[in-house]
Each structure stands twice: as C-alpha cells, then as structure tokens.
Amino acid sequence: MSFGPGVPPTSAAGFPRPRPLDRCPCGSGRTYDGCCGTVLAGESATTSEQLMRSRYTAFVTGDARHLLATWHPGTRPESIDLDPRVRWQALEIVATDAGGEDDLRGVVEFRAAWRDGAETGVLHERSRFVNRSGAWWYLDGVVSP
Ligand SMILES: [Zn+2]
User: pTM of this prediction?
Assistant: First the structure.
C-alpha cells in the first residue's frame, strides 16, 4: 500500500476520515457532507434510517462520541471502545419499518460487512429507534446469526 495522493487521510487513532466531497461511507451514493457528515457534526437526524446510517458511519470513522450521543440514555453503555483494526466495508439497508419524521418508533434492519485483518464477516441486525424530544435515538438491536 502506498501513501501517495489519493490515499484517504486517517485520524490519529487510525480510523478513515472522509473528506467533504468523498462518497459517504454509508453507501447512500451522496457526498459525506451531503449525508452523514451533517449528522455527525451535530444536526439531528430526521428519520431513523438517517440516524442508523450516521451511526454506521461513526463506526467507520471511530466516532464514539456520536454513538454515545445518539444512544437512548436508558440503554446507553458507559463507554464504547472502537478498534481501528476492524474496518467496516459496506452497509446495506435490508428493510425499514416506520421511523419517519412524524413517527415515535422506527426499526431498521441492515447488514454491515466488516474486515479485521484476514477475517471478514457480516453483522445482520434489526435496530430499534425511538423519537423523543424532537430527536431520534438508538434504543437497541437484535442480531441475527
Ligand atoms: Zn451517509
């Protein structure tokens, strides 16, 4: 691997750091700045799918702060330890249920492919979200084998 031009910059901890006009890591096809970048910068997600995508992108970029800030206080862990060796490769939204601007609950089923050295895998989860006080929160998720 070279480190010449075209190699995306990484953060100090070794996570990729998307540039504003890069394609968003969540796979929406939009630019980072026109997609998850705004939510990671602190704007509220308007749908549960948008929050799900931003949380996936936070895993890609090692943004534990965003993961904690959007985790419902009732189910939120004390801290999150992200490993830069785990590379999230791709997100596929399988299905969504509710989760629109006027809904109070939403479910997003997704598959997220990862690589850790030579090992690869796919996380298949149904995540539940709640809309409280004008903001979407991640509540919990059920992982499928
Ligand atoms: Zn995105």
Answer: 0.91
Quick one: tokens of 105? 């609950």
Q: Region 82-90: what's the mean pLDDT? A: 93
Give Cβ neighbours of residue 40 (< 8 Å, ≥ 6 apart). 54, 57, 58, 61, 63, 66
Supply 119's token pair: 């090992």
What residues flank ion ligand 1 with Cβ within 5 A?
24, 26, 28, 35-36, 53
Q: Which residue intervals of 31-104 are DSSP H helices?
A: 36-40, 48-61, 64-69
The rounded Å distance from CA 104 to ligand 1 centre is 22
Q: Identify residue 6 by its one-letter amino acid code.
A: G
Q: For position 145, what pLDDT does the model report?
A: 79
Q: Give the other-Cβ count within 10 Å of 128's Cβ.
A: 20
Higher pLDDT, 4 or 11: 11
